[in-house]
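ARCHIVE ENTRY
Sequence with per-residue tokens
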Amino acid sequence: MCRLEACRSTCDEMQALCLFAGANSICVGDTLLTADNPDVDHDGALFRRLGLKPMALETLH
């Protein structure tokens, strides 16, 4: 498992490369982090542009 976590770059191209190279999860929001992440709306827009669909939280339990 490879995860994009705290202090993710706001460079969409770099995040896209990471996702297509095998990252399979991201941390959303800034809870319990010391650095900012892009907001949820920004992440959602990036996923839509890349044709990715996030899994519903319920499917992870």
